[in-house]
Amino acid sequence: MSVHKRLSVIIPAYNEGEGIAAALEELIAFVDLEETEIIVVDDGSLDDTAEKAAAFPEVRLIRHGRNRGYGAAIKTGARLAEGEVIAWYDADGQHRPEDLVRVVEELWQRDLDYCIGVRGKDSYEDPGRALGKAILRVFLRVFARQNPTDFNSGLRAFRRGVLLKYLSLLPQGFGASTVTTLLMQEEGYLGGEVPIIVRKRVGKSSVKQVRDGLRTILLILNVILLFHPMRVFGSCGTALVLVGALYGTISAVRWGNGLPVLAAVLILFGAQLFCFGLLSLQISRMRRARFEELDVILLHDAAEAGRRELL
Fold first, then answer.
1. Cα 233 to Cα 274: distance, rounded to the nearest angstrom
2. How many angstroms separate the CA atoms of 194 and 156, rounded?
3. Relative to the CA of 83, which of 50, 210, 229, 283 has its CA 20 to 30 Å away?
4. Nearest-5° angle of CA 132, CA 144, CA 109?
5. Is 27 exposed, middle or buried (0-12, 13-18, 19+ CB in 10 A)?
6. Could you read off the pLDDT of 81-122 as tens digits, one per residue?
């Protein structure tokens, strides 16, 4: 089986010397190399990851001089990719190439903007990450008002123009998968999900549960504030005004001493938060207008490239 269109597979790798050779051998044997380019971004590995990747002439190796993070590796690969579709694939042996092809084919057949490989019931699940993922999932439901099936799956595919448009918003380190999931849903892109089987990784993960979990929560808040600042500031401001007004009314009626200082402070602070939310909303609209302008530029460049091919 082969992918029907030109595809760029980006494989970020940091100290994956134990498993990257087997992962590349499996991937190369499965895909049609005439339609697929494989890009390995060695993110400043301290082991022999780069040497093992360089042993495959079918692989395009890009090296960072120092470790810059998972998101930085994705961004480097995406900027240099030539495919109409850009897919992410792990170097640790967790993903199966047949699942990659199914994700990409789902995107093409349904004319989607992006498609995510969702871990199925037979997938391996690290017991140490279960609690952290559950907390992040609750956080997404409460604050982002989203309920993604698998928000941080590392196997996903995007239309080239869709991904390039938001590269600047991706974090340098861990959390790029979660951020792109939020961005695609917040912007209303047409997406799909494909069940996949994730295997136990080869080697040791560089993810730190507490540190990277907290960073992911901050990233989620950043995306929410970028696209829906009133969801945070407006809701909090309104709640404080209502609480202050209710407390002040009850105290004034019960004790007859007028509006308490605490009630006045709550009302004023709530009003300030609400106004700050309105100001942030205007900045958000200006930022989103820039993304729309970038979308027009990317479409124009794609049309020009197609016209040159016809000539």
1. 6
2. 9
3. 50
4. 95
5. buried
6. 989 999 999 998 899 999 999 999 999 999 999 999 988 877
Say what the pTM is. Answer: 0.74
Number of C-beta neighbours around residue 118 at 10 A: 20
Give the residue among 214, 225, 213 at the shortest CA–CA distance from 182: 225
Residue with tokens 């969702």: 118
Alpha carbon distances (Å) from 220 to 61, 109, 194, 214, 217: 31, 31, 23, 10, 5
Average confidence score pLDDT of the chain: 81
